[in-house]
Amino acid sequence: MAVSVHKEKGLQAVEEQGSNIWVAAADGDMRRVEFLLEHGDVTPTSKDEVHYTPIHAAASYAQHEMLRLLLKNEPSDSVNVEDNEGDTPLFFCDNVETAKILVEAFHANAKHKNHEGKTAAENALINGCEELATYLSSITGESLASRTALLARYGEEDDEDEGGLVDRSDNTEGRIEELDDDKEMEKRVDEMMERVEAVMKRAEETGTDPTEELRELVGASIMRQIMEGYKN
């Protein structure tokens, strides 16, 4: 009975916090991922609509402990799981340390080519990660062409100046957009509270009732909460 109650509370907590294992893996949220793996209908290699997995997400955001958690009990070939473009998690790395975990600890295939025929080393160089490209090519023994030549070979544009070197899946892009939205909301709340504090300060100085001005400022539905919070 206690186990059942515990599980029910856990499921409720996951629902409240969000049950997207891809985002949780990208965020490095170990507890949530562990719970979802144990109780949810997902695995480290579960694929979304573009075949992006939690392992891809963890590699993309250099979540090293998350990678170890996701891969430690999986079949050895899980480290080479492909998305719909044939990219393995190694293609989503943007630093040597993450790549070393995949290659040296979990034996990722650095010679794998995606559907374009591109290797992870070539992908790293195209994305401006020269140190990573050098490491991967030292593993594979391949001779890399120049970045300009690779861009021309694969028909890609040079978007290095735009700040995004590594291509992220729609899942993690969506997470970034959510964070931006949260920051904008926090900014709006801060601005609102500054205006509320100004109204309350002016009311204290003049001995007037700020109710109507607050009602116009924030709406009657939350005016009472603000008044109570200010008094506390």
From TrEMBL:
**InterPro entries in the cross-refs:** Ank_Repeat/CDKN_Inhibitor, Ankyrin_rpt, Ankyrin_rpt-contain_sf
Say yes or no: keyword Ion transport present: no
Does the entry feature the keyword Repeat, yes or no?
yes
* Keyword terms of this UniProt record: ANK repeat, Repeat
Q: PANTHER family under this entry? A: ANK_REP_REGION DOMAIN-CONTAINING PROTEIN (PTHR24201), ANKYRIN REPEAT DOMAIN-CONTAINING PROTEIN 66 (PTHR24201:SF15)
Q: What is this protein called?
A: Ankyrin
